[in-house]
Amino acid sequence: MLTAAILMGALPGEAARASSHYVPIxxxxxxxxxxxxxxxxxxxxxxxxxxxxxASPRRTLRIAVIYPSLQSSDYWRRSLSSFxxxxxQLRIPYDLKTFMSRPSVDVDLQARQxxxxxxxxxxxxxxxLNAVPHLRMIERVLALGSPRLILQNITTxxxxxxxxxxxxxxxxxxxxxxxxxxxWMLEQAGHxxxxxxxxxxxxxxxxxxxxxxxxxxxxxxxxxxxxxxxxDGDPDKAYRATLKTLQEHPDLKMIFANSTDVALGALxxxxxxxxxxxxxxxxxxxxxxxxxxxxxxxxxxxxRMNDENGIAMAEAIHMALIGQVMRVPxxxxxxxxxxxxxxxxxxxxxxxxxxxxxxxxxxxx
Length: 365
Hints:
With 365 residues, the chain is of the alpha/beta class. The protein contains 14 helices and twelve strands.
């Protein structure tokens, strides 16, 4: 078990350094005002039809992708599908090496995958930052100066890397999405009651999602966090943590889950104990979450317009190929929509068409 004071206060070593140096998008724009126009122009490009290359590059690009995609959430698989689809629309010739792993628990494997990928000498590397050890891995790549590094699922740059940044940060704003969820859940609870925090693993996701919800909840004196656990994104750990908390706090009112797999583990416990009165969120709005919302398992989620980040990565590469690398923004944060148990089915269908416009219905599963 982990208390919020331990997680959000004095963290040991690298975790403390990283958590205090993430720069929220608004703060980053205040420090780099020229990025505002670049981000707006780039967002228009992502939303528009592809403009294919007029002439083929002299050689085929090498792209390596290292994804923690072995989980219930289809975010990573759909991202890859939309990335490739947009590259093909843009007529960019490419060779792709893809490395898959489980989140949190496969960090050693990810380190070996990174070494293998770098030996291939790719032009672009797509990686992520969701666990503390990833910091050192990323810093090694930045020190090399090649390949161009795209950091996915992070839209808050690290201040320590401002002088030598990745090629691009791309994904969806975890803080924005969590605030949407928090506002809805806390209002539904009448701004009072006990809640359980189910973190992901120590690192970025827990900080941005769990930390934001805890901050929002702390604004209301009658809202109390009674338990907090790191789950490593493991649904079984979330299941056991939920059962334990329900036993110790039968008047539990809310559970904030930091990811899809965590939410599904908590949902299993709620169903087994006939406690579907407890508010439970998802995060991301992928296929498994939408199914759980439809059958009454989840109450709310922040739905990413998922394929936008795959399109954004392809468009950034396209701009570099046509000599417009200076017009690629430092950050791309895709759109997020709040979906609740009361959202009409036709509205969810409309959002699905937008979110999965290149990855298709179930295609990424």
